[in-house]
């Protein structure tokens, strides 16, 4: 049996809670547009601004409350996502892809913990079995090209699918966010390991689905009240 999520008595969101997402939305649009036209001088710095701005949105939406572990897990997921986004810039001495996999793997573990413990509204829906099928299919498609990263990619796929499946237990907003995050990494994996099969327009598509997915997860968590335990 699946353990029931913790019951948290919450206060209502401030009426202006969504304002915190405006800077994230604007910079996301600029970043995606820069990718679409090949403006790397704009795309690279704006990419590193995305997760900090989304963290600001989370803090703005949860302001005035004693947030504790749920907010810590949410911010942890965004921190590790930021480190994954900036793997080449932050860790120039290390191979980029393994660092990305490790950082995003930790981000997904934070999401799984938070969504399971504080945000889930019910059991896993039957349709969530599609994520297990997705994992098997992706390994079948990518395995000949993975080389020494095969087992690392397989392990990452488990936690990525785990976030999407756990999100399916939550509100529709969180569930769609989890699906978009999965879609983003699916397209990215195909671009990395099967580049000849992917058209150029999939470059901005990776970040469009990534930004939308992360933003919806955070917005859905705020709406669910998981990070808004009233201050003592």
TrEMBL record:
Keywords: Membrane, Transmembrane, Transmembrane helix
Pfam families the record matches: YhhN
Transmembrane segments: 17-36, 97-115, 127-143, 174-193, 205-227
Subcellular location: Membrane
Topology in membrane: Multi-pass membrane protein
Major localization listed first in the record, in broad terms: membrane
UniProt keyword Transcription, yes or no: no
Similarity section: Belongs to the TMEM86 family.
PANTHER family: GH04784P
UniProt-recorded name of the protein: Lysoplasmalogenase
